[in-house]
Design a protein that fits this description.
The protein is an alpha+beta fold. It has a domain of about 250 residues: paralog of FGE (formylglycine-generating enzyme).
């Protein structure tokens, strides 16, 4: 069950209970082996080997050394994106698109897997994460669900208070993205959402793939450019390249791009490596721990890190008890006034048990994984 900051902030506020803003998140019961196969350098494959071994639906991301983090001209960059530092990654294959509802359904049909958003809520476990003496909510409230976006009726002055536009919805999950009355009929090619970290790991295990590291994800998104966005530095054409918020967030979305929420994959132009919606549409999980101090520490290294797997442990100075993973790419909710997280270097931390209407994933595989 999920114990994220958003979950408690929204759920307990709605129930007029004691607010729980800082709590120690329980680590996922699923053992995370997602980076166990990338500590040693890969043997560089030939172009013929790359093409002949190309998994269906994936593209090749060539290895290289690049400057990871905020570029100098990015005026919207946040402190946890700095300083930029050199890293080296080996080549790998990556999903050309975010994992879709159709792909996730195939996995569920084969395994009978239930996502965290579909599982029963255990109050005995839940109460360990809230202030002592918190009254047990009514059983009608303690039911499986997830977080869905809701517009506000008027302008918002404090954009750091996320509870104003997130709502805990009983019955919301990957099959019912907006609540039990909704479905994914005719959305087979939309990215799957309401996916917690554990859900993504189990899918990867079934598909014989893994989640990308943050360094791999940023290499894939950045390509060979040293720019703020994957297409360059011109923000005036965001809506042509990204499914993002158009209007006053979170009050009015003008939907000039034709999409109020998620868009089908391959709607927007691909980047130079052939990746679609690498920015916008939905946030994407990576395997790295989110640590607000990590960039400062690695920037002191004399040589670029090779195939880095991120911080050794999680740390968020704004919520030091949380254990969060890095998510990248932004979503359909991103707007210049709010986060502009369709920028390549943009990053955010999310607890492993979080599932939201704008959070999904894509997978990677290395040549060595194909031969094992």
């Amino acid at each position: 069950m999920r114990k994220s900051s958003i979950f408690f902030g929204v759920l307990f506020a709605c129930m007029v209970l004691v607010a729980c803003q800082q709590k120690k998140a329980k680590e996922s019961s699923k053992v995370d082996t997602s980076t166990s196969k990338i500590k040693n350098a890969e043997k560089i494959p030939t172009q013929k080997q790359i093409e002949s071994n190309m998994p269906e639906g994936m593209v090749w991301i060539p290895g290289g050394t690049y400057l990871m983090g905020a570029v100098a001209q990015d005026k919207m960059a946040m402190s946890h994106e700095k300083p930029a530092h050199m890293v080296t990654v080996d080549g790998f294959y990556m999903d050309a698109t975010e994992v879709t509802n159709a792909q996730f359904k195939k996995f569920v049909d084969a395994t009978n897997y239930k996502t965290l958003a579909e599982r029963a809520v255990d109050w005995e476990e839940l109460k360990k994460q809230v202030p002592p003496g918190t009254t047990k909510p009514h059983d009608s409230i303690l039911k499986p669900g997830s977080l869905v976006f809701k517009k506000t009726k008027s302008s918002v002055s404090n954009l750091s208070d996320f509870s104003q536009w997130w709502k805990w919805k009983i019955g919301a999950n990957w099959k019912h993205p907006y609540g039990p009355e909704s479905s994914i009929t005719d959305k087979e090619n939309h990215p799957v959402v309401h996916i917690a970290y554990e859900d993504a790991l189990v899918y990867c295990e079934w598909a014989k793939r893994r989640l990308p590291t943050e360094a791999e994800w940023e290499r894939a998104a950045r390509g060979t450019k040293k720019s703020t966005f994957w297409w360059g530095d011109d923000q005036s054409n965001v809506l042509e390249n990204v499914n993002s918020w158009d209007g006053e967030f979170p009050v009015q979305n003008a939907t000039k791009d034709g999409f109020e929420k998620t868009a089908p994959v391959k709607t927007y132009p691909p980047n130079e490596f052939g990746l679609f919606e690498i920015s916008g549409n939905v946030w994407e999980w990576t395997s790295d721990w989110y640590n607000t101090r990590h960039y400062q520490s690695v920037a002191q290294l004399a040589q670029p890190e090779i195939n880095p797997t991120g911080a050794a442990k999680a740390f968020n100075q704004n919520n030091p008890f949380a254990k969060e993973k890095v998510i990248k790419g932004g979503s359909f909710l991103c707007h210049t006034s709010y986060c502009a997280s369709y920028r390549i270097s943009a990053r955010m931390g999310t607890t492993q048990d979080s599932s939201l209407e704008h959070l999904g994933f894509r997978t990677v595989v290395t040549p060595s994984m194909l031969t094992n």
